[in-house]
Amino acid sequence: MSRFEVNILGCSAATPTMRHLPSAQVLNVRDKLFMIDCGEGAQLSFRRAHLNMTRLGHIFLSHLHGDHCFGLFGLLSTMGLTGHTGEVVIHAHPDAEQIFRPILNYFCRENPFEIRFNSISPSMSEAIYSDNSVTVRTIPLKHRIPTCGFLFEEAESQRHLRGDMAQFYNIPTYMRAAIKQGEDYTTPEGIVIPNSKLTLPPTPSVRYAYCSDTMYSPRIIPYIEGVDVLYHEATYGDDSEPFARQTFHSTARQAAQIAQQAGVGKLIIGHFSARYKDENILLQQAREEFANTELANEGMKIILK
Predict the structure, then answer these.
(1) Which end of the chain has the least Cβ crowding within 10 Å, N or C?
(2) What's the rounded mean pLDDT across residues 196-208?
(3) Peptide bond into 213 cis (omega under 30)
(4) Is residue 67 annotated as a catalytic residue, yes or no?
């Protein structure tokens, strides 16, 4: 069975609180793990979510503010102690390797796996990773320093072979894979049976977009239009809209306006300021603009497929 799910490990802004940890998420795509941001406490939340560190091969950093990357060194060190092999690729701003490599060389020099950096350009949208399960693209965001979000798009699945047609035409087993990939079938008598008669359309691919940190920016809409789930920062409420603009962050209402304009399936808001002891006021404001909104929280699992 196909799997595409998102695990929220942290959803606070700037500093950890008694209720929330800084930004970190892990996507499970067909049992391969991909991490987005790695704030403090990420490795503990990783374990609490019962995720297998040996399956983590790629870490995507939206930007180089501490609340999105200070958990990186501890996580990579622990991965070395738990038997991770192969390599871990860190996709981040070009400055990341210059900043992190000396620390990793000092504390993680005996790790049994390679740590490789893949420099990305936050100012443009491009595919930065692809395999037979998923493609990851950057989403240019508007923040105080170069920042990008990430769009995870499941690889297109094959068409579904109709069992009744396969039986009616007695299609050999060895030909069925090609038919699922779109080929027609030629009977022993030379009659061509069109693929559209033999198959049903593939299951639609799911898409997940992560947009944090960013101020209100309608220019991201073309990149996230129609995604199944959008995670968008909602650092502040209506009471702090001027401060949100000043610090290049978004309000919950603005996040919901983006979701509404982009026609997304569901909105998850997070990256909450510590000033809010109860984020339900943020949820209320967001739902006034986009009804299908939920609050992020540590331990939350979003199942897309």
Answers:
(1) N
(2) 89
(3) yes
(4) yes
pLDDT of residue 202: 83
For residue 178, what are the contacts with CB-CB under 8 A and spacing of at least 6? Answer: none
User: Based on the domain organization, do 143 and 192 belong to the same domain?
Assistant: no
Tell me which H or E stretch contains 77: helix 72-81
**pLDDT reported for residue 129:** 98
- Mean pLDDT score across all residues of the chain: 95
**Based on the domain organization, do 170 and 229 belong to the same domain?**
no
Cα 136 to Cα 243: distance, rounded to the nearest angstrom: 32
What is the bridge-based pairing of β-strands 293-295 and 185-186? unpaired
- Of the residues 144, 174, 200, which one is the last residue of a structural domain? 200
What's the confidence (pLDDT) of residue 203?
A: 81
**Does residue 188 share a domain with residue 219?**
no
State the catalytic residue, choosing from 37, 67, 213, 228: 67
Are both 179 and 31 inside the same structural domain? no
The total domain count for the chain is 2
Tell me: do 9 and 67 sit in the same domain.
yes
- Answer yes or no: do 169 and 187 share one domain: yes
Could you report the per-residue pLDDT of 244-270, keeping only the tens digit for each? 999 999 999 999 999 999 999 999 999
- For β-strands 266-270 and 293-295, DSSP reports them as parallel
The domain that contains 34 carries what CATH number? Answer: 3.60.15.10
Rg of the Cα atoms in the chain = 22
In the chain the first and final C-alpha atoms are separated, in Å, by: 9
Kindly state the tokens that stand for 16.
Answer: 């950890």
Same-domain check for residues 39 and 134: yes
- pLDDT, tens digit, 9 for 90 and up, residues 119-134: 999 999 999 999 999 9
pLDDT digits (tens, 9 = 90+) for 43-53: 999 999 999 99
Number of neighbours of residue 110 by Cβ within 10 angstroms = 8
User: Cα angle vertex 146, ends 45, 141, to 5°?
Assistant: 80
pLDDT for res 2: 60
Give me the mean pLDDT over the 159-179 stretch: 89
For the beta carbon of residue 67, count every other beta carbon within 10 angstroms.
22
pLDDT of residue 1: 44
